[in-house]
Backbone:
């Protein structure tokens, strides 16, 4: 496996170096650096979108989620992702229309323009920062614990994590968003390929899909239905998760920018459909990997289970490809999010282009260091951490949709209530206050309150205009 790892890793690194140099040569302005020229076609568009959304937590987190909580994870992600694609189709063109009217340097700057005051942008940026840093961290932590288990004694977990962050910063700082998009394209193709190869091997182990579920039922029948053996997949959890993922394309800046930079509306619509197909195919492949773990490795830790199923139970060339694919996935999603936060800083500051770009690059380094520190301190529940990130940024959904859709500037009351919602959800996630009010989950309650309040405010102001 070591030989194959050097070969495949060397090829991937060479392609990454070429993409970085090529992107640097084609970057002529600050907008080229931050927005990749806003002329991305269908193929690169759907791959960069997919690679940003489906990353390390897909190949590492989702199999363990199926292993631990059962097939209800399919409802949790596949149905929610279907809704997300529908929302891109429904609202993506509205976002692009707003960008054409107001200009675009980042979602924070766009919302400041839509609301007619900078506090709209500040609240969006604060919410994105608070809940994106943990999500970035789980990418880094996920690959760190995997590599520490796969190559014991070579580097400690924090050493692997630091190495990943340094490489990521080098090519993103040099090549900008174009280099990240090329990295995404390579990662997306590699991730889909290795996931399906591993999945088919797991199905062959059982002798077919039907036999797989029969054996899982014999081990733990609760894995085959909701709410699952740990009671996670309640109706409220699934509904709240649906809304959290539904808002994802418009509340997380690294995803929103990928809608904006598509070259035209037709490419945007086709990109959304392609992302839906990619999502279903990728998540479907993680089911047999998780079921395989439920039968063979039910009592192992997360890292031991993943190392065994993804590397040691595979042919050497496949194990090496999986290792490289995971490293690529971790870098692809984390660099997109770190870079997007840097772009949000750019959209909120002013000055000469040179001064603004210097501050933007320094901000990117700061966010990378913050994510690395969080990665070292966080736990191994990758999917649940990702879900908290989705839910936290979803609190920004009404703020964003009001700015995009309202005919008149929304009122300051929407900004204030959104800020309060973000704070309440944040402290409830930390356990400072209860995670539910009576029988109702805090995130579901906050979605409802923010949505109804914002809708009422917008309707009232539009009627008075």
Residues:
């Amino acid at each position: 496996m070591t030989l194959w790892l050097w070969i495949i890793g060397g090829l991937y690194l060479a392609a990454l170096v070429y993409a970085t140099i090529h992107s640097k040569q084609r970057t002529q302005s600050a907008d080229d650096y931050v927005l990749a020229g806003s002329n991305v076609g269908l193929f690169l568009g759907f791959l960069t979108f997919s690679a940003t959304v489906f990353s390390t937590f897909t190949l590492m987190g989702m199999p363990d989620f199926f292993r631990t909580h059962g097939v209800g994870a399919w409802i949790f992600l596949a149905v929610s992702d279907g809704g997300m694609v529908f929302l891109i189709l429904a609202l993506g063109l509205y976002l692009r229309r707003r960008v054409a009217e107001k200009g675009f340097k980042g979602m924070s700057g766009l919302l400041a323009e839509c609301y007619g005051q900078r506090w709209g942008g500040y609240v969006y940026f604060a919410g994105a920062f608070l809940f994106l840093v943990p999500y970035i961290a789980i990418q880094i932590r996920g690959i760190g614990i995997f590599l520490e288990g796969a190559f014991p004694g070579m580097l400690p977990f924090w050493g692997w994590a630091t190495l990943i962050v340094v490489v990521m910063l080098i090519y993103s700082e040099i090549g900008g968003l174009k280099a990240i998009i090329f990295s995404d394209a390579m990662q997306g193709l590699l991730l889909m390929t290795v996931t399906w190869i591993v999945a088919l091997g797991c199905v062959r182990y059982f002798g077919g899909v039907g036999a797989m579920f029969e054996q899982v039922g014999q081990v733990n029948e609760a894995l085959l239905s909701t709410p699952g053996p740990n009671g996670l997949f309640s109706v409220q959890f699934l509904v709240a998760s649906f809304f959290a993922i539904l808002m994802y394309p418009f509340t997380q800046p690294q995803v929103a920018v990928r809608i904006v930079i598509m070259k035209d509306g037709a490419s945007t619509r086709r990109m959304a459909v392609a992302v839906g197909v990619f999502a279903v195919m990728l998540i479907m492949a993680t089911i047999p990997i998780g079921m395989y773990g439920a039968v063979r490795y039910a009592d192992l830790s997360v890292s031991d289970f993943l190392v065994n199923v993804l590397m040691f139970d595979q042919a050497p060339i496949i194990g090496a490809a999986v290792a490289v694919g995971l490293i690529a996935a971790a870098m692809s999603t984390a660099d997109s999010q770190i870079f997007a936060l840097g772009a949000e800083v750019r959209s909120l500051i002013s000055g000469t282009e040179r001064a603004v770009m210097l501050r933007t690059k320094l901000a990117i380094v700061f966010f990378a260091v913050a994510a690395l520190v969080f990665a070292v301190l966080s736990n191994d529940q990758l999917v649940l951490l990702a879900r908290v990130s989705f839910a936290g940024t979803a609190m920004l959904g009404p703020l964003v949709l009001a700015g995009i859709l309202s005919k008149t500037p929304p009122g300051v009351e929407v900004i204030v209530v959104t800020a309060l919602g973000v704070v309440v959800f944040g402290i409830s996630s930390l356990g400072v206050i209860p995670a539910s009010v009576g029988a109702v989950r805090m995130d579901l309650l906050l979605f409802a309150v923010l949505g109804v309040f914002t809708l009422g405010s917008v309707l009232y102001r539009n009627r008075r205009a």
